[in-house]
Specification:
The structure is a single chain. This protein is an alpha/beta fold. About 45% of the residues lie in helices and about 20% in strands. The strands form four sheets. A six-stranded parallel beta sheet has the order 8-7-10-12-6-13, sandwiched between helices. A hairpin with a 5-residue loop joins strand 4 and strand 5. It is globular. About 35% of the residues are buried.
Length: about 325
């Protein structure tokens, strides 16, 4: 098949942002889609097969529009746009740029970065209970926290309840010194980190002192009825079927977990796994299954998650 050539307008001032330092993103697009890109002034030539050129132009136009809107293009943006183009899906990066949930204390916009994350956020908005299930780095807890803080600031709920099982991650920690809060803090640290980044340490401490934000291990939530609250249960794969959080009137619950990171005893059933089977067809419950395509940490994390997925699949096929 003879290669074709398409020339498109490309504002030179966006070249460094869209194509990256030393054209690293341009080289990634060329290598992934098997095209040649030549930028001369405000003209960009794309050479390759018809399908490859169409994909490349679509990806570049999406990245260019993001750049025009003032976004710093990241490797994650490029990888995700390429991933979608390989599946013959439009990039939709521009749509994702509209869904700003809130801003961090430093002014950085918090928003979905993938279609999977966008669906997850929409379900949180629409459903009373939402399950977010997927591998590390997919933003399950962080986006849930952003939604909770936004609802709290907008007076949609009176308080935020954050909880997770206090289970040792495959290690015996032994005796932990200090009072009760000191003992459970190590298990709850990821929740604190997200709160500090979005809400700020001072605002977090003030609201915590007033009892408007509560961070506690799941074991201490038993028997409580929580009205007009935003409840986030994190690391739910480490719950047992008997551990349930009660939801009161006007409350929302978000349950997050990663079924590949269970720290329960070998013969124990995960409460999250059972809940997904039992509640999967309940209309008013949202279930978002995030995948390695939704990983928004360093690209290496995505590769590691994908490699372990393949390893687990191969191991299961040998059984």
């Amino acid at each position: 098949m003879n290669p074709i050539e398409i020339e498109m307008n490309f504002p030179a001032e966006h070249g460094g942002n869209v194509f990256g330092q030393f054209d690293v993103y341009m080289k990634k697009i060329e290598k992934t889609l098997h095209v040649s890109l030549i930028l001369r002034g405000d003209k960009l030539k794309c050479i390759g097969s018809q399908q490859a050129v169409n994909h490349a132009v679509s990806v570049i136009e999406e990245l260019l529009e993001l750049s025009r809107r003032g976004n710093a293009i990241t490797e994650q943006n490029v990888n995700y746009a390429l991933s979608l183009s390989m599946d013959d899906q439009p990039a939709h990066l521009i749509e994702l740029d509209k869904d700003v949930i809130c801003h961090t204390i430093q002014g950085k916009a918090v928003k979905p970065k993938t279609l999977g994350q966008k669906k997850y956020v929409e379900q949180i908005k629409d459903k009373m209970i939402t399950f977010g299930v997927g591998p590390a780095g997919t933003g399950k807890t962080y986006l849930a926290m952003a939604m909770a803080i936004t609802a709290f600031k907008n007076d949609e709920v009176n308080r935020i309840i954050l909880t997770r099982p206090a289970i040792e991650a495959g290690e015996k920690l032994g005796f932990l010194p200090g009072d009760l809060q000191s003992k459970v803090d190590p298990y709850l640290r990821p929740l604190y980190d997200a709160l500090y980044e979005i809400l700020g340490a001072d605002a977090f401490m003030k609201n915590m002192e007033k009892g408007l934000i509560e961070v506690a291990p799941l074991a201490y939530m038993r028997g409580r009825t929580l009205d007009n609250a935003y409840i986030i249960l994190d690391e739910a794969q480490n719950t047992t079927p008997a551990q349930m959080t009660r939801i009161g009137f006007g409350s929302k619950a978000i349950i997050t977990g990663d079924m590949t990171q269970k720290d329960l005893p070998f013969d124990s059933i995960s409460g999250l796994e059972e809940a997904l089977q039992v509640l999967g067809k309940v209309k008013d419950i949202g279930i978002s299954h995030l995948t390695n395509k939704d990983v928004v940490r360093h690209p290496l994390v995505q590769q590691i998650v994908a490699a372990y997925d393949k390893y687990e699949e191969a191991k299961e096929s040998r059984k």
